[in-house]
Amino acid sequence: MELGETMEQGAIREAAEEANAQIKIKRMLAVFSLKHVSLVQMMFLSELLSPEFSAGEESLEVKLFPIDAVPWEDLAFPSVNWALWYGLQELQKDDSEVPEVHGNPDTPGGSNSFVFNPKDGSLQKLVWPGNK
User: Fold this and answer.
1) d(Cα 26, Cα 41) in Å, to the nearest integer?
2) Which residues sit opposite 114 in a β-bridge?
3) pTM for this entry
4) pLDDT tens column, 8-55
5) Residue 102, SS3?
6) Rounded to an integer, what distance in angstroms lies between the CA atom of residue 67 and that of residue 69?
7) Rounded distance, CA 66 to CA 53, Å?
8) What is the DSSP letter of 50?
9) Nearby residues of 65 by Cβ (< 8 Å), 6 or more positions away
């Protein structure tokens, strides 16, 4: 986030900077605490307002994939993996269900993480080096 902007404004700005994408925020999806890199990430469910997008100044390449073609092993950060998994879970819910804001898929304050296994829909434990 930049000084003076809301979380939502920051997400909209980041989508524009990273992917030249225009989005509309639907709601917060998750807040991840990544203590191994002293970082907090806020993820939002959003709608792509236009089919036009491209790599921005800070990206080498951007693409849209059908869920069965996502290159899961090539995702740069476990938190992207978690957000996609949580997003899939939320999209399968009935509209009458109360939306959930998710956190790290491990114990609070823990250093272990989980990654999505698209073959069986499960989360598998990932241990960061030095934090077993």
Assistant:
1) 17
2) 125
3) 0.75
4) 999 999 999 999 999 999 999 999 888 888 889 999 999 999 999 999
5) strand
6) 5
7) 16
8) S
9) 71
